[in-house]
């Protein structure tokens, strides 16, 4: 069964929905593979004008699937690096979409979920949603999402939450430049539609070229940055802290440093 749903309306608005609500839309290996392919397919679809990234259930995305992450302890370094690259590749495919990407954040976004928010051109969340870069609590790093988080938030804002694993609310996420704005839950769809509509009166080619120009002028995420982040996380997976932190999570106990 597909864990990524895609629906494109007659206007060319494609809605990509994370459909693993029972697991809080945690990013499994299969889910990341499917999402990457969807993004690459949409990038080639000239009938698409705007892409909306949405999710089913109460949680937008709880981050990386920890069962998948735990398997990495038994992998050799090269395989671990390959697995580590999955989320970076997904984020890169979404970041490189020629279409405007609008995030419909209907619930909490943690870890990799913050990465998904970061690659959106506009992200609107419901008031009361919680967000956080929670990796260091597990002895890990917000590495693969890091280049996109920094590009979105800027180093000064990101430094307030990048290392501390502190969970913050949607209103603070606006101040941190992670979200564009917040709205009441019953106003979310209208807010997303208000973002979509202006693009439908614009020349699609001009929009795509404007997005490319904006990325070039502002300093786009580079392959070197992505590779540096992948290496950092792959190395961190070999640490005693990572094994202790992830183990403590599964055993429902506090890690040794807490």
SSE layout:
Layout: E1 4-8, E2 13-18, H1 29-43, E3 50-55, E4 59-61, H2 66-71, H3 77-95, E5 101-105, E6 108-110, H4 112-118, E7 122-126, E8 130-132, H5 146-153, H6 155-158, E9 168-169, H7 170-175, E10 181-183, H8 188-196, H9 204-218, H10 223-236, H11 240-250
Parallel strand pairs: 2-3, 3-5, 4-6, 5-7, 6-8, 7-10
Antiparallel strand pairs: 1-2, 8-9
Describe the structure.
The protein has helices spanning 29-43, 66-71, 77-95, 112-118, 146-153, 155-158, 170-175, 188-196, 204-218, 223-236, 240-250, and strands at residues 4-8, 13-18, 50-55, 59-61, 101-105, 108-110, 122-126, 130-132, 168-169, 181-183. Helix 1 (29-43) packs parallel to helix 3 (77-95) and helix 3 packs antiparallel against helix 10. The chain is globular and about 55 Å long. It is built from 11 helices and 10 strands. 44% of the residues lie in helices and 16% in strands. The N and C termini lie far apart (39 Å). The mean pLDDT is 94. The chain is of the alpha/beta class.
N-to-C span: 39 Å
Which stretches are low in confidence, meaning pLDDT under 50 for 5 or more residues running?
none
Helices, by number, come to: 11
CATH-assigned homologous superfamily: 2-enoyl-CoA Hydratase, Chain A, domain 1
Gyration radius over CA: 18 Å
Within the CATH hierarchy, at the fold level, what is the topology? 2-enoyl-CoA Hydratase, Chain A, domain 1
Please tell me the overall pLDDT: 94
Strand sequence of the main sheet, in spatial order? 1-2-3-5-7-10
- Domains, number: 1
Q: Give the % helix.
A: 40-55%
Q: Give the class-level CATH name.
A: Alpha Beta
């Amino acid at each position: 069964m597909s864990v990524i749903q895609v629906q494109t309306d007659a206007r060319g608005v494609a809605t990509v929905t994370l459909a693993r609500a029972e697991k809080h839309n945690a990013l499994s290996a299969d889910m990341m593979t499917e999402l990457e392919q969807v993004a690459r397919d949409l990038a080639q679809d000239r009938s698409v004008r705007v892409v909306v990234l949405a999710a089913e259930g109460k949680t937008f995305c709880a981050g990386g699937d920890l069962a998948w992450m735990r398997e990495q302890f038994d992998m050799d370094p090269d395989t671990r690096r390959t697995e580590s690259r999955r989320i970076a590749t997904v984020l890169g495919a979404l970041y490189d979409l020629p279409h405007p990407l609008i995030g419909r954040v209907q619930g909490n976004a943690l870890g990799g979920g913050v990465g998904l928010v970061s690659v959106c051109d506009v992200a609107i969340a419901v008031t009361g949603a919680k967000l956080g870069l929670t990796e260091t609590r597990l002895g890990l790093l917000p590495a693969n999402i890091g280049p996109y988080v920094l590009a979105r938030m800027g180093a000064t804002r990101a430094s307030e939450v990048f290392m501390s694993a502190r969970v913050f609310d949607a209103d603070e996420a606006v101040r941190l430049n992670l979200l564009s704005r917040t709205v009441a839950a019953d106003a979310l769809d209208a807010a997303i539609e208000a973002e979509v509509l202006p693009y439908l009166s614009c020349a699609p080619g001009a929009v795509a070229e404007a997005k490319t120009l904006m990325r070039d002028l502002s300093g786009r995420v580079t392959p070197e940055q992505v590779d540096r982040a992948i290496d950092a996380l792959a190395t961190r997976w070999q640490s005693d802290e990572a094994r202790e932190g992830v183990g403590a999570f599964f055993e429902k106990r506090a890690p040794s440093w807490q």
